[in-house]
Specification:
There is one protein chain. 0% of the residues lie in helices and 37% in strands. It has no helices and 21 strands. The strands form six sheets. A four-stranded antiparallel sheet has the order 7-8-9-10, with no helix packed on it. The radius of gyration is 18 Å and the shape is globular. The two termini are 21 Å apart.
């Protein structure tokens, strides 16, 4: 679980907002206080942060994840300092937020240390995936958009060889074919667990996905506007790397250092999301709590310039 102290941020989480908005971003400051911002429109500027303790946050947070519920409304999930999951749903697409659920939604079986969220296809809503202190991955999902939770299950890849490593940080992304893919970091190495179009999971890839070129310290993922899933990572120097599927649910291309001019890093946190226009935006935080955004100029195209977001509200 993240326990950052000082002036840095504990967590970032981004998603494509509903309605006429672009992307939105949540952040936990060094005290675990939650703030929220969003683009006024796809590809537009970012609003001033709302916070601290956004949405009537009941307790400090340690980790964040956010995704759509398959009805245009988002669901934020947060781990508190005890590893319990708390949730905050949107009232309407691009609109306000309802009350917090939890702690320990869906009869959570044990404390968790990492959290990821993704939007399921078909009749389901949001999927939450978490790792515990032993590095085992757990899954819980809404039975339908805005509806009840399934309960937590583990051993997702048992039938195809199991999970042969302890998972740490997690990220979920849409593969562009109606199925999700989970990424996990273990001792600096990345592994991937794809969902099949029939909604079953697995098998896990080996650690060091796609001939991973370096050890990584952080990761995030989102759907690429012109292919499948795209993974973003940070190396030990705080530099950004990226890896994309070649087509929806397709094979992996090669790792690349992100082609960003004049990056203001080094960075310590990442988040990424679509902007409602097919283009992706990447959000990154430095070790002093400074937050930056860069976006594609067109889906699958080049990248614009880095913009620094306003400072988070003080706590």
């Amino acid at each position: 679980m993240t326990t950052t102290t000082g002036t840095g941020l504990r967590a970032l989480a981004a998603a494509t907002d509903g309605g006429k908005r672009g992307a939105c971003l949540f952040a936990l400051d060094a005290h675990g206080s939650l703030s929220f911002t969003a683009q006024e429109q796809a590809g537009g500027f970012w609003r001033l942060w709302q916070g601290p303790s956004f949405g009537g946050q009941p307790v400090p947070g340690a980790a964040l994840a956010v995704a759509g519920q398959n009805d245009g409304q988002l669901m934020l999930a947060m781990l508190d300092s005890g590893g319990q999951v708390r949730t905050l749903p949107q009232r309407k697409a691009g609109g306000g937020w309802a009350g917090w659920g939890g702690p320990g939604i869906a009869s959570q079986p044990r404390p968790f240390t990492a959290l990821a969220a993704g939007q399921l296809s078909g009749p389901r809503g949001i999927a939450l995936m978490a790792s515990d202190a032993d590095g085992q991955v757990w899954l819980c999902y809404q039975m339908n958009p805005g509806g009840a939770w399934s309960g937590w299950t583990t051993g997702l890849a048992t039938a195809s060889g199991g999970q042969a490593f302890a998972a740490g940080p997690l990220a979920l992304a849409d593969q562009g074919n109606g199925a999700l893919i989970l990424f996990a970091l273990s001792a600096g190495k990345v592994a991937a667990l794809p969902q099949r179009p029939d909604a079953l999971w697995g098998p896990w890839s080996g650690l060091g996905l796609a001939d991973q070129p370096a050890d990584f310290t952080a990761l995030c993922a989102c759907r690429d506007g012109r292919s499948g899933a795209r993974l973003w990572t940070l190396d030990a120097k705080g530099q950004v790397w990226t890896l994309a599927q070649q087509g929806a649910g397709g094979p992996w291309g090669g790792w690349q250092q992100a082609p960003f001019a004049h990056a203001p890093g080094p960075f310590v946190r990442l988040a990424a999301a679509g902007q409602n226009d097919g283009a992706v935006t990447l959000l990154a935080a430095g070790d002093k709590g400074d937050v930056w955004a860069i976006a594609e100029t067109a889906p699958g195209g080049g990248w614009g310039k880095w913009r620094q977001l306003p400072p988070l509200p003080p706590t």
